[in-house]
Write a structure and sequence with these properties.
alpha/beta, Aspartate Aminotransferase, domain 1, 2 domains, two-stranded parallel ribbon, globular, binds pyridoxal-5'-phosphate
């Protein structure tokens, strides 16, 4: 073995406390579930697990939708599957943008031939729902897309009013709840959301690589109009039904085919990612065992302690507080401080990772995630301690010792659990 290969013999993963807006630390119970033996994808023992995943997803999404199942791939695979399956070339798609992930909807929609209409509001704020509704009335889109929790700015867009308006105006509302699902309410039915996409590596605390989605009959009706079963497995009836149709442009992301695999028919599509399915099953069990209300309260408590600590340290929180995401806290980088240098000191000395941001916010804010398993008192106190020490190391002027005390006061007033 060469010296180079010799160095590759052992996987080396340093211990870390991950306080970014994802990926976050995976719950040890999920890691254990992932080490279980592989089952065949049509084995009744496995299809039972699939059915349980669907049942738990409905509960966590607070929906009566029949369709609630994961797409194999990261969260953007879920976004792409929904857009690919709904958009035909020339369809109008309205995309309100208040951060980076609104732009991702534009990217995906354009590639599937949508006629894109955008409205924008300044980063650090969200839209007044009326503004979106009046644009919907002007554009008459087939689909409106909205990001629920915009991790690039730490803001959360209220959805209920827009959802109701979309239902009245017969427009489909597609929501990116990647960074909110499992950490704060995502009321699919009450808010009239037609399709919702989430991700594993955020508040569910499972690894990246699986994207749970849900959608209602309004969406299913559109999808089924372009249903085509793959050549190699189609029956004569399937072929007759698809004659003359323009199929969904993507094979991998064709929800009309995927839902056949997630139904009694169990029609083969791709090979299911078995270990990720186990991870999602265990991740959802953890969410439902804790209870949605308790879980959301835990996220709010740790957020409150983190914010109190940051402010007591003399740092400023970034963005409009009225629409802050409970799972992501953005901090303005003080003048004269090098944002990346502070992050490096924090990582190298404390093993704690926080995130920077994108585009115009690069170098201007830090983003701290309090999500899922990582959303804990010990982690919040560790990040405050490490951040203060790293800031001092990098020459910043902070109120020494005050951040931790302020956070501890929050916990003492309302102890966890
Ligand atoms: C709000 C939001 N949407 C979409 C994505 C894309 O997710 P992924 O990287 O899992 O494809 C992210 C990732 O950070 C996100 O935060």
């Amino acid at each position: 073995m060469t010296e180079k290969l010799e160095n590759c013999r052992r996987l080396s993963v340093p211990p870390r406390t991950i306080m970014t807006p994802g990926p976050v630390e995976v719950d040890p119970r999920v890691l254990r579930a992932m080490s279980m033996p592989i089952l065949g994808q049509f084995d009744p023992a496995f299809t039972k697990i699939m059915n349980e995943v669907m049942e738990m997803l409905r509960e966590a999404y607070q929906t009566k939708n029949h369709w609630a199942y994961p797409i194999d791939g990261t969260s953007r695979a879920g976004l792409e599957a929904v857009i690919a399956s709904l958009i035909e070339p020339g369809d109008k798609m309205l995309v309100p943008i208040y951060g980076r992930f609104g732009d991702l909807f534009v990217e995906i929609g354009e590639r599937y031939g949508a006629e894109i209409h955008t409205i924008e509001c300044p980063w650090g704020t969200v839209f007044d729902p009326e503004e979106i509704i009046s644009e919907i009335k002007k554009v008459h889109p087939k689909v409106v897309t909205l990001v629920h929790g915009e991790t690039s700015t730490g803001r959360m867009q209220p959805l209920a009013e827009v959802g109701r308006a979309c239902r009245e105006l017969d427009v489909l509302l597609v929501v990116d709840a990647v960074a909110t699902f499992g950490g704060t309410d995502v009321k699919v039915d009450d808010w009239c959301l037609d399709a919702v996409i989430s991700g594993g590596q955020k508040c569910l605390s499972i690894p990246s690589g699986i994207a749970p989605i849900t959608y209602n009959e309004r969406v299913e009706k559109v999808i089924l109009k372009r249903k085509k079963v793959e050549r190699g497995i189609a029956t004569d009836d399937d072929r007759k039904a698809a004659a003359g149709l323009l199929p969904i442009r993507s094979n991998y992301f064709d929800l009309s085919q995927l839902q056949d695999y997630w139904s009694e028919r169990r029609l083969n599509h791709h090979t299911e990612a078995t270990s990720m399915e186990y991870a999602l099953h265990e991740g959802l069990r953890l969410v439902l065992e804790e209870g949605l209300e308790n879980r959301f309260a835990r996220h709010r408590l740790n957020e409150a302690a983190l914010m109190a600590g940051i402010e007591a340290m003399g740092l400023e929180l970034y963005g409009d507080p009225a629409c802050k995401m409970p799972t992501v806290t953005c901090v303005s980088v003080p003048d004269g401080v090098n944002a990346d240098e502070v992050r490096s000191v924090l990582l190298n000395h404390f093993g704690i990772e926080i995130a920077g941001s994108f585009g115009s916010l690069q170098g201007k804010i830090w983003r701290i995630g309090t999500m899922g398993y990582g959303c804990r008192q010990d982690n919040v106190l560790a990040v405050l301690a490490g951040l203060e020490a790293s800031l001092i190391r990098c020459g910043a002027d902070v109120n020494r010792g005050e951040g931790l005390q302020a956070a501890m006061n929050v916990y003492e007033k309302q102890p966890v659990g």
